[in-house]
Write a structure and sequence with these properties.
heterotrimer, A alpha+beta (274), B mainly alpha (374), C alpha/beta (1090), A: 274 residues, alpha+beta, five-stranded mixed beta sheet, two-stranded antiparallel ribbon, globular, C: alpha/beta, six-stranded mixed β-barrel, binds ligand MGD, binds iron/sulfur cluster, binds molybdenum atom
Chain lengths: 274, 374, 1090
């Protein structure tokens, strides 16, 4: 149950760094924001054939400050309704006063190479696409939630319908009111290249299971995932691990890289730096 | 029991169910309490229960229709009907549980056979077809070879299918509490017990005036034995989960045995659902057609319902990651689950459906013409 | 592995599918081959939803503006789809969101796919705009109901304006004066004349002569005395002053309009902001330490109201003291990456905070200090640093500007200046050269030819004033502090001697003696930390040259001793000489938005049509003149309420001063974006006053909803949200680049009402309120000739676009500092991006006209607006290890000006040096003992919440959905409290533990306990932002219709009402009477399990 991130076989585990010194000599600040570098690398990867890209996400737990910007950015870009969250961040307090620290663990979908969730789906509504991203077909999904039960990471949530604005006032002459206020969440729900209107209680993706898709539409259009661009701790990295010069490849070569619950044999494409 | 009362109870349940259904259809999932951690609740456990009773009944029916065991003579067709009725209720439960009922057909025509759910659906579909066939064939000619063949196929299917929910759960490595090879076997055992219990219910409640030498003793004894075996299986399963220090496994067992499920576990599953019926069956021993037999059967079914529910729900009340459930709040993002009004209402409806189905079935479709004296 | 998992998804649109006859065949073939994709394709063809082009990256769907979900002001890029905000991201040009930020000249088009990082509140911004509880009509308190009853009626904008101007029996409670009658003095010339006469009265020190001047005033203006509040106190000023304008969060632009409206047009001296609720003492410590030497009179002028922060991106070691970097501050997007970079590159930082903040959790060292004792910890460090001579002696010895210039230093300090010591061994003033005969006075003429006194040395050098003295190798030397060309003076640092019978000590000596008042162990004891920690901190701090910094914020500041805590920490920075150094202490710099530099196109603040009014008089907060100068002075102390010679914008004193009618009664209060009763410590005391129609006859608020404070208003005028309006957000001291952020309308809400002012149709908003009043009262500075003959001020952008033009033009007379003109491509992007805005908001012609129709200027404006502001290039902020946007002047270790000020409650002089004073004192300076209330209450911000404002942001509420009482496991165990138990908080000044919010409601201060190891035992804390009673949380009726509140917004808890009420005045929080801060961290409470 603990959010153990297991180091990968190739490297020896390094002790969790709680903010102390690992490298002695101070380094000057970077020359370019990593977001710009990754943006360029993304452009490069898009020029390649789909099957040649190996999208991965690397999350540096030393740099994560538990701010939840990624959580909300993801909600905003996907207009997630109440109860749906693609990228929560867990907070665990560790230690005894005054030696206290906190571990923050952002958890997108691991985009497992060996995903138990897709195997659990009775109707092929969730599957790994050509680029290795585990996607949803909302129009195929019957909403049985077997995939949620099968995911060891809790990375899937069920769309019960509803909006965040639901149940607020609707006295339109004097206040903005629900029916105008919810335009932003009701009308715009774009995923997998599709704009969906949440008009009735049964129109997909209502009644479907939903999950992080590595911001498929954004990356196809050369924009980094929303959780990555808004990561104020600069703890989240995204890119093509097949490109040996990419930032993510550089990071993955380090010994202090691990995966979450690797013992499940899921082979996550999300890596954590310890 | 008085038919009228059964009709009344059935209609009442059905009416409540209709309200529940209407509410569910208008509000969507907004009024249900299952969620994104506890994804399967009352309805799924009812699906498993009804499915279990159905396959169990079929297996029991083979005592009459294949093996012609005298003391079960005449129970075959009623058991088949019960299998069909409970299967329908079970499938209704699972269909409602889906976010998109209208796409239910996909599980058959676009199935992914590596999925436990798809296997289940296919299993129950085949099982349903076989049951219907058996019913039809048995209506015309009780001892014909076609029926024998169908019954044999059905028997094998029933045994396999009764274990499928167990396999569905047991296969799931993400829910370590379920992830046990004991699961399919447990489900088979439970089905056998539930089938027996259902027969007791039929005999003691629905078909009290069934003529003939009906031997309650043997049915009661075998069922009692199955109750005992199931108790033992539960014991093995729970103690095994409790030992060792994997919180993902121990915690649900802890919750069942000592935690907030303990009242249901000890009160309903163990005392009311096992000990009391054992007491009735061994000590009181009702005569043929005695209501007490039916009561014992009902209690066993209740205990079984609770048992299935507890394992299903408790197994999901574990944070997949430490702190995950407290990292974000919203509809369905909680580890605690108890069925909502709507869920209960629909459950009542399903029970009503079963009662009406059985009653009406016995009254209209199963004149039981040739079953008693043959 | 499953082979069905690696096939390409067929993209078939519904139309394509239906048209293609072979499709069915293809689909069925696919059906067998790769089932999932086929399913997807078929489903997609028939299913709901439509394919959309990716819109996010198209610059024509993006408007660059500035976030105001907190006060950090990150640049944002608002992505718009069908006129609705679809997503908010960071503006990549802004140094707040990328580090380093890309070149300003990058074409807008290239930025389409690039976005910077912003925090969760920034991401959730649309929920503030699309808040169902936004008010869309003017609300008036229903006649017959009481303030706070939640009973409203709507009325047309024009009617509402007429009512507040005309007054009358507006509520059936009797006559109320309107703005018209309060603006009794209408002649600008008369105001100027009276103002000058009042100044003479103030400058007169002799009691009798002062009296005579007052009589003379009454005589001279005998025909106009009715325009005064009190003819016996002409320095109360005109009745106009009885209109008071108080804002909470307000930024440049709107602030400039307020200046224009309140002071220059309406003629009231009373307008103030919320500085002291925020980090007041920090600003006023900065002001005192930056107090400027005046070479004309040999005295100190005021310093600048500002503060320093760390340039932490370049620091090798940082001590964050009471700085909540990862959750709050200015702000996480900008500051967090610097700290996380430090984590992985091994640059250490320590955190001094009673609570284990997220920052502390990641720190090399967390020092859980006892609240209110920061100065003690700093003093311990100072003692060690001075004893071990670890200070930067070379820098500190630079005694004047000339020495600094010669040494290539950006600034210098008065460390070596000699201070006179009185009999009680207290420092008084700097020694002046003439006092020890180093110079002697001579008659002379000043630059303007007026007679003045100069001072000559024996060797014939002349000073324009009586200059200070420093020891140079044991010899006293007179020196010119500020003249770059004067002889450089390198003074002796530690001096304690007598010169000509006068006891003198150098400033540094004074500091040393102050630090020697206790041993380091004793200092550690006071601060509740270990001596070892002090030593380690001091050692580390002095081991990185100038690349170390103490970065402070509200934690040390918001105490009764806040000024001195800040002062002590800033002094640590001074000791290593890190001011204006990369990695050291820096200050903010912005492009001039007022056109005050020569050559700038629009000197907006000076462009004032007809006569501009000079407001005069004692202000309600008693900050603009001293008690001793005023006609209220009778030699006695304490005064009824304190006067504030150093601080200003004393937010917590607004309502109590109105309540006490001190110095005079207020008739009309207008508030803007003001949450004072919610945000102030002991803010509930303000509710009592706001609801008393005798103390406050008319209360007008401008708000976007019925907020916690506007809840008590008589009228609420709707405003537009930050996504719909103009403002210039300015900068913060941690930003080394010269910048200005341009907030401008990105959206207009569906159905948003418009009003007509000066014949123009504009959205109902704050500006509309002012413009409409100005129109009806015929105020100068507004209307067709508002900026001068033929230059109209009729629309909001008439003002703001001129300011944008000034910013775009830059500060060089020849325009060489201006931004380029937008090219064709950028012009198109600009226009298309605004295609959804209604003409009442955006009309190209009108916008262009606002910048004088000047094509080139307009294109420059567009260029800047396409970038959301103006940002200096990354590399330009640093040169040779120093910052280029420097503070660059004298830093006062000993603050003569502070030492001269009198605390009017005690009658004693203030202390002009860093010192440790116990915290938690009442207005008379006595330490409060609240026996029986044993837990120390502090507060903090979570990243998801800002003040009263983010409760409407449901996404954020999903992350932290209610407030809680954070307490240590040890305390919890003692009280039998477990995690998540409900607890009740009470205090000596609120023993009932409730918020009495009127309207028959009392909200108990109850909420969940959060039991943790991460807080100092004995201290409890709570996060800001919950425990609402308005802001959409409560039911209200408008026109008899019930507007149901939203339960999610009522979640507990807010403990400001548990904070200590000053036992002396009984209607205000505790305050730092030097630095002005409202006090958040010096209250004692009891926590009980319910
Ligand atoms: N999320 C969010 N961010 C914001 C704002 C917001 O409302 N929400 N507001 C913005 C504004 S207006 C401001 S002024 C800034 C404020 O920025 P900060 O001042 O950095 O933030 P606060 O949370 O007020 O920080 C106070 C810190 O001081 C600690 N503290 C309390 N008492 C003491 C003490 O005696 N000594 C020391 N050393 N520490 C103490 C508290 O535990 C807390 O961590 O934040 C800005 N950013
Ligand atoms: N417990 C606790 N209290 C604190 C703090 C803390 O850390 N802990 N921090 C303090 C700090 S740092 C500060 S700066 C103060 C801030 O205190 P304030 O400046 O008083 O409060 P705000 O919440 O910024 O804004 C006040 C009100 O403005 C209204 N409003 C919101 N948006 C708009 C708008 O767009 N237009 C108009 N016209 N009105 C609007 C709302 O009614 C809101 O209640 O709070 C302080 N209070
Ligand atoms: S993390 Fe879960 S949802 Fe994501 S691919 Fe892996 S198993 Fe599937
Ligand atoms: S919920 Fe949808 S995606 Fe998940 S297993 Fe069921 S059908 Fe597949
Ligand atoms: S990659 Fe996109 S979908 Fe996935 S967590 Fe990040 S923002 Fe959400
Ligand atoms: S945005 Fe970055 S720093 Fe913030 S919680 Fe997410 S991963 Fe951590
Ligand atoms: S830090 Fe403040 S200004 Fe910046 S994005 Fe967050 S809420 Fe907006
Ligand atoms: Mo603030």
């Amino acid at each position: 149950m603990a959010n153990e991130v297991q180091p990968m076989e190739k490297g020896s585990p390094s002790p969790p760094v709680s903010g102390g010194a690992t490298i002695k000599t101070p380094e000057p600040p970077a020359k370019e924001d990593v977001l710009l570098r990754m943006n360029k690398e993304l452009g490069r990867a898009l020029k390649k054939n789909e099957a040649q890209r190996k999208w991965v996400m690397v999350i540096d737990l030393r740099r994560c400050i538990g701010c939840h910007a990624c959580t909300v950015a993801c909600i905003a870009v996907n207009k997630l309704p109440p109860g749906i969250v693609y990228r929560p961040v867990t907070i665990q307090e560790k230690g005894k006063y005054p030696n206290v620290t906190m571990n923050f663990l952002p958890r997108p979908c691991m985009q497992c190479e060996n995903p138990p969730c897709t195997q659990a789906c009775p109707v092929h509504a969730t599957y790994t696409n050509a680029e290795g991203i585990v996607v949803m077909d909302y129009d195929q999904c019957i909403g049985c939630r077997a995939c949620i039960a099968a995911c060891p990471y809790g990375a899937r949530t069920y769309d019960f319908g509803g909006t965040y604005t639901e149940g607020t006032t609707n006295e339109e002459t004097v206040v903005l009111g629900e029916s105008r206020a919810d335009d932003y969440e009701r009308n715009i729900n774009i995923e997998y290249g599709r704009k969906r209107v949440r008009t009735n209680k049964h129109s997909s993706p209502i009644g479907n299971v939903r999950k992080c898709h590595f911001c498929l539409d954004r990356i196809h259009n050369g924009v980094l995932p929303a959780c990555t661009t808004t990561c104020i701790g600069r703890a989240t990295y995204f890119g093509d691990a097949d490109d040996s010069t990419s930032l993510v490849s550089e990071l993955l070569a380090k010994p202090n890289v691990g995966q979450l619950k690797a013992e499940f044999g899921t082979k996550p494409r999300v890596y954590y730096i310890l | 029991m008085d038919k009228k009362i059964l009709y009344l109870v059935g209609i009442l349940g059905f009416a409540i169910g209709c309200w529940g259904l209407a509410d569910f259809l208008s509000a969507g999932d907004a009024h249900t309490n299952y969620g994104s951690f506890v994804v399967w609740g009352l309805w799924v456990s009812l699906y498993f229960l009804f499915g279990g009773i159905a396959t169990g009944c079929f297996i029991w029916a083979s005592l009459d229709l294949i093996f012609h065991v005298p003391s079960f003579s005449g129970t075959g067709r009623p058991a088949l009907l019960a299998a069909l009725v409970t299967l329908v209720a079970g499938l209704a439960a699972i269909a409602l549980d889906l976010g998109h009922m209208d796409r239910f057909w996909k599980t058959i025509f676009q199935a992914n056979m590596s999925s436990g759910v798809a296997m289940d659906v296919w299993g129950y579909t085949v099982f349903g077809l076989v049951t219907v066939a058996a019913l039809i064939v048995s209506a015309t000619e009780p001892k014909n070879p076609t029926l024998q063949a169908i019954m044999w196929i059905g028997l094998i299917v029933s045994v396999v299918v009764s274990g499928l929910p167990g396999k569905l759960m047991g296969n799931n490595a993400a829910r370590l509490f379920w992830h046990s090879s004991l699961m399919p076997l447990q489900y088979l055992l439970q089905s056998l017990m539930a089938g027996g219990a259902m027969l007791l219910v039929l005999r003691g409640i629905f078909l009290r005036d069934l003529p003939g030498e009906y031997q309650p003793g043997l049915l009661g004894k075998i069922t009692s034995l199955l109750v005992l075996i199931n108790l033992f299986a539960s014991y093995v399963f729970l103690t095994q989960s409790l030992s060792g220090n994997m919180p993902e496994i121990a915690q649900p067992a802890q919750q069942i045995v000592f935690g907030h499920f303990s009242t249901s576990f000890w009160g309903l599953q163990i005392v009311l659902g096992s000990i009391v019926p054992l007491f009735i069956l061994f000590i009181v021993r009702g005569s043929a057609g005695s209501f007490l037999l039916g009561l014992a059967g009902l209690l066993i079914l209740l205990g079984n319902a609770v048992a299935r529910y507890l394992v299903l729900v408790a197994g999901q009340q574990v944070d997949p990651l430490e702190g995950l459930s407290s990292s974000f709040s919203g509809k369905g993002l909680t580890l605690t689950y108890s069925p909502s009004m709507t869920e209960w209402a629909v459950a009542c409806g399903l029970l009503g459906l079963v009662i009406l189905g059985l009653r009406a079935g016995f009254d209209r479709f199963l004149p039981l013409a040739h079953s008693p004296k043959e | 592995m499953n082979d069905i998992t690696s096939k390409k998804t067929a993209m078939i649109t519904r139309r394509a599918f239906l048209q293609s006859s072979s499709c069915a065949v293809a689909a069925s073939a696919a059906f067998l081959r790769d089932l999932p994709e086929a399913c997807a394709a078929i489903q997609k063809a028939f299913a709901a939803g439509e394919d959309v082009d990716f819109f996010e990256d198209n610059p024509e769907n993006q408007i660059y503006t500035v976030c105001l979900q907190c006060n950090t002001g990150c640049g944002i890029k608002v992505k718009i789809l069908d006129g609705i905000v679809a997503k908010i991201d960071g503006n990549p040009y802004s140094p707040w969101t990328l580090w380093p930020h890309p070149a300003y000249k990058t074409p807008a088009k290239e930025m389409g796919k690039i976005e910077g990082a912003i925090c969760p509140k920034g991401q959730a911004g649309m929920q503030a705009a699309y808040d169902p509880y936004r008010i869309m009509s003017v609300l008036k308190r229903k006649p017959g109901s009481k303030r706070g009853d939640g009973q409203w009626i709507t009325l047309p904008f024009d009617k509402a304006i007429d009512e507040i101007i005309g007054g009358g029996d507006l509520f059936g409670e009797g006559h109320v004066d309107g703005l018209k009658s309060v603006r009794a003095l209408t002649s600008a010339d008369m105001a100027k004349e009276m103002g000058e006469a009042v100044k003479k009265i103030w400058d007169e020190k002799d009691k009798e002569k002062k009296k005579a001047l007052v009589e003379g005033f009454k005589e001279k203006f005998k025909d106009h005395l009715h325009t005064l509040i009190d003819p016996d106190h002409p320095d109360f000023g005109p009745k106009n002053n009885q209109f008071m304008f108080v804002w909470g969060r307000m930024k440049g632009g709107r602030e400039d309009v307020v200046d224009r409206f309140v002071q220059e047009a309406f003629g009231s001296i009373n307008m103030n902001g919320h500085t002291t609720v925020c980090q007041g003492s920090l600003y006023f410590t900065g002001k005192s330490m930056s107090s400027k030497w005046n070479s004309k009179n040999g005295e100190f002028d005021s310093g600048d109201k500002f503060y320093w922060q760390g340039d932490t991106g370049n620091s090798e070691f940082v001590i964050y003291a009471g700085t909540n970097l990862f959750d709050a501050n200015y702000g996480p997007p900008h500051r967090a990456p610097k700290a996380t970079e430090a984590i992985i590159t091994g640059r250490k930082f320590a955190v001094i905070d009673p609570r284990c903040s997220k920052l502390a959790a990641k720190a090399w060292k967390w020092i859980p200090i006892k609240p209110g004792t920061d100065a003690a910890l700093a003093m311990g460090m100072i003692r060690w640093i001075i004893e071990k001579e670890r200070y930067n002696a070379g820098y500190l010895a630079l005694t004047n500007q000339a020495a600094a210039t010669a040494a290539g230093e950006p600034n210098y300090a008065n460390t070596a200046w000699l201070v006179k010591i009185n009999d009680k061994n207290e420092p008084t003033k700097f020694l002046r050269a003439s006092e020890i005969g180093l110079t002697s006075p001579v008659e002379a003429l000043d630059e303007e030819g007026k007679p003045t006194t100069h001072y000559k040395t024996a060797d014939g050098r002349t000073f324009t004033c009586d200059v200070p003295v420093a020891m140079v190798n044991g010899v006293p030397v007179a020196f010119d502090p500020v003249d770059k060309k004067a002889p450089a003076v390198i003074g002796d640092l530690l001096v304690s001697t007598e010169i000509g019978g006068k006891k003198v000590k150098s400033s540094l000596q004074l500091l040393k003696e102050e630090a020697e008042k206790h041993t380091i162990a004793e200092w550690a004891d006071i601060a509740g930390v270990s001596e070892k920690d002090i030593l380690i901190l001091a050692d580390e701090f002095t081991s990185h040259g100038r690349k170390a910094v103490v970065d402070i914020h509200r934690g040390p500041s918001q105490h009764t001793n806040g000024f001195y805590n800040n002062n002590a920490y800033y002094t640590l920075n001074l000791l290593i000489g890190n001011y204006d150094y990369a990695g050291g202490s820096i200050k903010a710099k912005t492009y001039d938005r007022k056109g005050s530099k020569k050559g700038q196109p629009f000197p907006v603040t000076k462009m004032f049509g007809s006569h501009h009014f000079t407001a005069f008089g004692v202000d309600m907060l008693r900050t603009k003149t001293t008690y001793e100068k005023s006609t209220l002075f009778d030699g006695s102390y304490p005064t009824k309420r304190p006067w504030f010679p150093i601080a200003s914008d004393i937010y917590q004193e607004d309502l109590p001063s109105i309540g006490d009618a001190y110095p005079y009664p207020i008739k009309i209060l207008m508030t803007y974006m003001n949450g004072s009763v919610y945000s102030l410590p002991a803010g509930h005391t303000g509710i009592e006053i706001l609801t008393d129609i005798k103390k406050l006859p008319l209360y007008i608020a401008c708000d976007i909803m019925v907020g916690e404070t506007s809840n008590y208003a008589d009228y609420i005028f709707p405003d537009v949200s930050y996504l719909e309006r103009w403002e210039f957000h300015g900068s913060h001291p941690s930003v080394p680049w010269k910048v200005e952020n341009i907030r401008n309308p990105a959206i207009s809400l569906p159905g948003w009402p418009t009003v007509s002012v000066y014949g123009e149709e504009i959205p109902i908003c704050f500006e509309a309120l002012f413009l409409a009043i100005a129109e009806k009262l015929d105020l100068p500075g507004f209307g067709p000739d508002g900026f001068g003959k033929g230059i109209p001020y009729r629309r909001p952008e008439d003002f703001y676009l001129k300011q944008v033009a000034d910013i775009a033009f830059g500060e060089k007379e020849d325009g060489s500092d201006s931004v380029p003109e937008a090219n064709e491509e950028e012009m198109i992007i600009f226009l298309k991006a605004r295609r959804h805005l209604p003409p009442s908001v955006f009309d190209e012609k009108k916008w262009k006209a606002a910048v004088g129709g000047n094509e080139s200027l307009w294109k420059k404006v567009v260029y800047a607006m396409n970038r959301g502001g103006r940002y200096q290039d990354f590399a330009k902020a640093y040169k040779d290890g120093q910052v280029t946007n420097t503070y660059g002047e004298l830093i006062n270790l000993f603050q003569e000006k502070t030492a001269k000020c009198i605390n009017t409650m005690t009658g004693k002089n203030m202390i002009g040096l860093p010192t440790y004073l116990p915290a938690g004192t009442d207005y008379l300076g006595k330490v409060i003992q609240d026996n029986g209330y044993d837990l120390h209450l502090i507060t903090f911000k979570t990243i998801t919440m800002t003040k009263a404002r983010t409760i409407s942001n449901y996404w954020l509420l999903s992350i932290v959905h209610e407030g809680y009482v954070l307490m240590n496991t040890v305390d919890a165990a003692k009280l039998g409290i477990r995690h998540d138990d409900t607890v009740h908080v009470t205090s000596a000044s609120n023993p009932e533990g409730v918020w009495d919010v009127k309207g028959g409601r009392k909200i108990p201060m109850k909420g969940k306990a959060y039991v943790t190891e991460g807080i100092r035992p004995g201290v409890v804390a709570f996060p800001l932002g919950f425990g609402h009673w308005a802001s959409g949380s409560a039911d209200m009726t408008i026109n008899g219709k019930l507007i149901k509140g939203d339960k999610r917004r009522t979640v507990p808890l807010h403990l400001n009402a548990a904070m200590r009420i000053d036992p002396v005045t009984k209607n205000v929080t505790l305050s730092d009477l030097v630095g002005g801060s409202a006090v958040f961290y010096d209250s004692k409470v009891k926590v009980t399990k319910v």
